[in-house]
Amino acid sequence: MTASLVAGVMNAMAGGGSFLSFPAMLAMGVLPIQANATNTVALWPGQLTSVAALRGDLRRDLLPVVCGAAILGGVSGAVVLLKTGQMTFLHLVPWLLLIASLLFWVSGPVSQWLRRRSAEPHLPRTPALVPLFFVLLPVSFYIGYFGAGSGFLIMTALALFGVEEMHALNSLKVLAACLANLCAVVIFIFSGAVIWRYCLISMVFAGLGGYVGAQYARRMNADVLRRIVVITGCVTATYFFWRNG
Q: How far apart are CA 66 and CA 172, in angstroms?
């Protein structure tokens, strides 16, 4: 319960709540695949409310390619996860956590670059949609498979293809993550991979933590929050490297 509450606060402020909630489920004896699936389902409603709040900032010309990549990638990532052996995934966990931590760390300077670009944006233009689709597809696959740190990858891909306005970047990021995770959620539920007694408790406390975190998000220094997330992820990854070793 405590891990889910703190995870909800972290997600509202900076992201990275899975660094706490996912290991907490493993610590309670949940198998690795089921822990990841349960954690994904528990945290997804918070993403849906974010999409509703940001829907006015979405760029309609990019919706087909972003949604298509998110759905296809999310489905394939979830299916591959369920076909991964428990021990194989457990040995992947520290590497996935370490990669996600590094993504959060790199997201700081990249976010500053994005803000500088959005300060004096050029006229909006539609990027090359087919190449953008194939760049977003593996990112969406990663979301369906594990997902932590993926938002930064979506924003970076869109920015490299010419999307400069910060609100548009953020709203498209949230939409892509929400859709990819929705596909994963549906697959996890129908495959029976969700441990509901843990999921429902985690969902309630993560939602409560998200509400609390949202109240204080703007008062906190973003760089400090990012460092906390990175340190948490690295410590958790180190623990799993030691445990698997």
A: 7
